[in-house]
Design brief:
CATH architecture: 3-Layer(aba) Sandwich
Shape: globular
Helix content: 25-40%
CATH superfamily: Alpha/Beta hydrolase fold, catalytic domain
Number of helices: 6
Largest sheet: 6 strands, parallel
Number of strands: 6
CATH class: Alpha Beta
Structural class: alpha/beta
Strand order of the largest sheet: 2-1-3-4-5-6
């Protein structure tokens, strides 16, 4: 079986070169699903970009998402006829669209998609993520039918979290992709 194409889905405002997903892209040749507008993300636009990326992939894909990208994966899976092309998803530091700062800034992303995802999924969260409480992250993982991984007090699991190349995350992805 071919290795899947890994599609990286950054969150709101994108990811800089020091953030682990971009380091993975540079080190492993993964593909970033680029958005037309990182600053004012509209759910429909982001879902169509993911749909295009999955359709354009020459084989099945694996999704690696951070923050709002996790919500993108869940919302996309709720309607796409191409979700069977996804082998697995690693969803890291999901955004809780119920938090006031996110619900006010990103109104097109409510309500959250809470259905069981049709592919193997691991959700990784933190005990002190300002954009998603531990309880909310665990509830999302449960709703999505995902395995839950708690990284302890690690913030939003972004560049400020000092994860570097984040080998633990890469090990989670590797394990997730085993048949």
């Amino acid at each position: 079986m071919m290795n899947p194409r890994v599609l990286v889905l950054p969150g709101w405002k994108g990811s800089g070169p020091g953030h682990w997903p971009m380091r993975w892209v540079a080190a492993h040749g993964y593909s970033v699903v680029e958005q037309h507008d990182w600053q004012r993300p509209l759910r429909g636009d982001w879902l169509m970009r993911l749909e295009e990326a999955v359709i354009d992939a020459p084989s099945e894909v694996a999704l690696v998402a951070h923050s709002l990208g996790c919500q993108q994966v869940a919302a996309w899976a709720a309607y796409s006829r191409n979700s069977a092309r996804v082998r697995a998803a690693l969803l890291v530091a999901p955004a809780d669209m119920q938090t006031p700062v996110l619900s006010q800034a990103l109104p097109s992303w409510s309500p959250e998609a809470r259905q069981r995802l049709p592919f193997k999924t691991v959700v990784v969260g933190s005990e002190n993520d300002p954009y998603c409480s531990l309880a909310s992250a665990q509830a999302l993982a449960m709703s999505w039918g995902a395995q839950w991984v708690n990284l302890g007090p690690a913030g939003h699991l972004n560049a400020e979290s000092k994860l570097g190349d984040w080998p633990q995350g890469l090990a989670l992805l590797t394990e997730l992709l085993k048949d």
